[in-house]
Amino acid sequence: MRKHVKSSRSRTFTRVRAVLAGALVLGVGASVTLASWTDSEYAAGTFTASTFRLESSTQATDWRDSTAPTDASLTVNATGLSPGASAYSWLNIRTTEASTVGGTVVLTSSTPVGNLAPALEYRAVLTNSTSVCDATAFSGTPTYIAGSSTYLPVTAVAAPAVATPVAAAGTNPLRYCFDIRIKTDANNSFQGKSATVTWLFTGTSN
User: Fold this and answer.
1) What is the DSSP letter of 139?
2) Given pLDDT bands bounded at 50, 70 and 90, which one contains residue 10?
3) Mean pLDDT within 182-204
4) Comparing C-alpha atoms, which of 148, 52, 135 is closest to residue 94?
């Protein structure tokens, strides 16, 4: 009888160990998934591009957007120019009223066409918007945007270029005064010749 009881207890203990072992194995392989609360926040913005446009006026025109060389012409009393004798003309530049930002304006090119071109030279200064454009604009210490007391050939612009601030919404127009002449040492072969010079101003917004 005792042997039978012992054997029975041994088998029962073995089963218990097997069940526990199985439980341990299940415990190792199991994982717990926890739910989490979530929330989101959005941020949005509306973006509008600025507007920057230039317009100009000369002695011959009212304010206009001169996008081609034929749109604006300097009026120069240049009939019968002689070597060393200057002719003067002004150009006003401003932003349009619709412009929401200001910027800078630079004289970026000077392009002559015609057989008098090699004999022509010029200089230009920035003056206030009501100044008279004549020899007095170049007296004292003016702000040159091209040349100086020394003239430039009409094929050249200042290097480095001189940037002039321009305000938004058409306020505070810029006035440039040009002094154009035939070189003092021009050859007699240029008599009766003519040329057209196109100056390009480029504006860059702030």
Assistant:
1) S
2) low
3) 92
4) 52
E-strand stretches of the chain: 54-58, 61-64, 86-95, 103-113, 120-127, 143-146, 152-153, 164-166, 174-182, 196-205
Are the CB atoms for 146 and 126 separated by under 8 Å?
Answer: no
The confidence score (pLDDT) of residue 22 equals 47
Give the pairing of strands 54-58 and 61-64.
Answer: antiparallel
Structure tokens at 101: 């930002």
Q: How many helices (H) and strands (E) does the chain have?
A: 1, 10
pTM score, two decimals? 0.77
**CA distance linking residue 111 with residue 128, whole number of Å:** 26
Q: What share of the chain is helix, strand, coil (3-state, %, to 5)?
A: 20, 35, 50
Spatial contact of 178 and 133, defined as CB atoms under 8 Å apart: yes
pLDDT > 90: percent of the chain = 54
Beta bridge partners of 94: 55
Residue 148 has pLDDT above 90, yes or no: yes
